[in-house]
Amino acid sequence: MLSSKSLKSLVLCSLAGASALLGGCDRQSGEDAQPQASQTAPRGEQAGPDGNAGKLDRSHKGELLPATILVDNTGETLDLASFKGKPLLINLWATWCAPCIAEMPTLDALIARENELGITVLPISQDMGQADKVVEILRRRKLDHIEPWLDEKGDLGFRYGGNLPVTVLFDNQGKEVWRYTGGNDWSSPDASKLIAEAR
Questions:
Q1: I need a surface site. Which of 59, 106, 164, 187 has the fewest CB within 10 A?
Q2: Number of structural domains found in the chain
């Protein structure tokens, strides 16, 4: 009988299998399968902090921010709809995803500059039911600006595909500008230009 953790990995691997050109599942620490970004950088794409290439997708431009409620380790909730009126950058990550962990310090640095950039940066963990792991990894890696918000039902992960990390930019009307699959250096000049598109 599959555990819920194994089932989650199986589902994510199945989703990832449909987009094998973008990435695939492998084993990390012999336990959890993890989605990964593509190993080669197609023309016009850039490598993230883990050396893998990411893919920019503008084909969903104009789609509305999904109605999703997040929860943190204390049980506090956060409605994504409450961010309408200001540009929002959401990042879907998980503690078992190596490319996600590699880019987290750049997201942490970006959050420290939110007021200067005029944007809200919101990393959202896909570690369903494992808030303690999220809190522990943020604390251990000294990612002090990232709060432990979780997508408890995995709604966002299924909506935006099985490969993590996924970063989606929304404008101040709550409409998608672009989505980026794979790790990225979010403190780079190229990333700054992409983020500026929300204004």
A1: 59
A2: 1
DSSP string covering 115-166: HHHT-EEEEEE--TT-HHHHHHHHHHTT-TT----B-TT-HHHHHT-SSS-E
In this structure, is the dihedral angle defined by the CA atoms of residues 174, 179, 183 and 188, taken in order, positive or negative? negative
What value, to the nearest 5°, has the Cα angle with vertex 136 and ends 131 and 141? Answer: 130
| pLDDT 10s digits, 44-72 | 444 444 445 689 999 999 999 999 999 99
Does the bond joining 105 to the residue before it have cis omega, within 30 degrees of 0? no
Quote the CA–CA distance of 166 and 146 in Å, as a whole number. 16
In terms of residue numbers, what domain contains 60?
47-196
Instruction: Give the closest residue to 168 by CA, choosing from 122, 109, 137.
Output: 122
Q: On the CB side of 194, how many CA atoms lie within 13 Å of its CA?
A: 24
What CATH number did the domain enclosing 116 receive? 3.40.30.10
